[in-house]
């Protein structure tokens, strides 16, 4: 076993922490995103209320561990997580096809190398965890997508996890901090309106 394992398994009633992987997490989404035909503020509110839905999403907790432990936040930030095979079929292949690009084994291999090396600013990869005699919780390689960010009340998520009675995997240091750093890089991108002139 590695001296620096990626994950530990925690019980359903374990305190919520940064890096917790939540299977089937209920999050609020908007079914409708085209509100262009509405021109009255009251209608906007009605349309928004009617567009809300709940969907289950495999997620990872992004909120800083210290903020959760010290009760400094009311809401937990989560990002969606895909098993690598799901990411390939549900995200990468449709994107490539929509942009008239090939989905060959070579193209996928190139994409995987960029993903693994951290060159894709909107994504990061998590390593797999194999099952063995002492470890009955496994996971394949996973991809965290920073494009969609969800938020849930801390109390709701903690209570829902306890009620689920299912153990969960938790990223360990330094991997959860690396995930946080990747998330920060995604949000700290700044494009300049005018390039710097040559010195």
Report what the structure shows:
With 199 residues, this protein is of the alpha+beta class. It has one domain (7-28, 56-187). The chain is built from six helices and eight strands, in the order E-E-H-E-H-E-H-H-E-E-E-H-E-H. The chain has helices spanning 41-51, 65-69, 84-98, 105-117, 154-164, 175-187; strands at residues 7-10, 21-30, 52-61, 75-83, 123-126, 142-145, 150-153, 168-171. Strands 2, 3, 4, 5, 6 and 7 form a six-stranded antiparallel beta sheet that branches. The chain has a two-stranded antiparallel sheet with strand order 1-8. It is globular, with a radius of gyration of 19 Å. The N and C termini lie far apart (52 Å).
Blueprint (SSEs and pairs):
Layout: E1 7-10, E2 21-30, H1 41-51, E3 52-61, H2 65-69, E4 75-83, H3 84-98, H4 105-117, E5 123-126, E6 142-145, E7 150-153, H5 154-164, E8 168-171, H6 175-187
- Runs in which pLDDT lies below 50 for 5 or more consecutive residues are none
Compute the number of strand runs: 8
Strand content: 15-25%
Give the rounded overall mean pLDDT: 89
Give the SSE string: EEHEHEHHEEEHEH
Largest sheet composition: 6 strands, antiparallel
Helix content: 25-40%
Helices, by number, come to 6
Structural Rg: 19 Å
Output the structural class: alpha+beta
N-to-C CA distance? 52 Å
Concise overview:
The protein is an alpha+beta fold and about 200 residues long.
